[in-house]
Each structure stands twice: as C-alpha cells, then as structure tokens.
Amino acid sequence: MRFKAALVSLLVAGAIAAAPLSSASARDFHHGRGLLFGLLGLGAVAAVAAATIVTAPVVALAGPPAPPPYYGPPPGYYYPPPAYYAPPPAYYAPPAVYTSPR
C-alpha cells in the first residue's frame, strides 16, 4: 500500500514540475527569433516563389480541374410497372381436428 501511495505522489509531483510556471504567450516579445530563423524564412520564401514560377506554365496549360465525383443520392425515377400481376397466394384451411404432435 505504501508503494502505491509513493508512486502516486511521485507522479503528481512530476506532473506539477512539468507544468509551465508562466502563462502561455504567442507574441514575440519574450524571446527574439534570431538571425537563423530570419535566414530560414527568407530561404523558404525564395523556394516557394521559384516553385510557383516554374510550375505556372504547367498549370496554365492543364486547364481547369475536373469536378469532384457526385456522391449524392441516386436520381429519383420509377421503373415501369410489370405487365402481369400474379394472383394472390392461396391459403389452406386449418385441419378440422387438432391432435397432439406426439
């Protein structure tokens, strides 16, 4: 029993230690991005611009994209009625005397 209590308390202490002590912020004033981030961003912009320019003629010659397949319900139509209607099935009368199946 003491082992379980010690294990649970260690897990709780680890969870509290792993939790951040400051509030989360998506702004940039806490940490500077630095020179490396700026150079990587500039390289990414140049790569996207070059790919756009290189693939522009292919996109222009390909034409508009094909429409997606139709996944709706089937069209509403009815089959023609059959030419022959069969008579209703015949039912037999119950036997006159019911006996035990033994």
Keywords:
flat, mainly alpha
Number of helical segments with 4 or more residues: 2
Q: What is the percent of helical residues?
A: 40-55%
Inertia-based shape: flat
**Structural class, please?**
mainly alpha
N→C terminal distance? 67 Å
Assembly level: single chain
What share of the residues does DSSP label as strand, in percent?
under 5%
* Average pLDDT rating: 79
Number of strands: 0
How much is the radius of gyration in Å?
Answer: 39 Å
User: In sequence order, what are the helices and strands, one letter per element?
Assistant: HH
Low-confidence stretches: none
| Main sheet summary | none
Can you tell me about this structure?
- By secondary structure, the chain is mostly helical.
- The protein has a domain at 33-59.
- Helices cover 45% and strands 0% of the residues.
- The chain is built from 2 helices and no strands.
- It is flat and about 100 Å long.
Condensed summary:
This protein has helices at 2-18, 34-62. The protein starts with a helix and ends in a 40-residue tail after the last helix. 45% of the residues lie in helices and 0% in strands.
SSE layout and pairing:
Layout: H1 2-18, H2 34-62
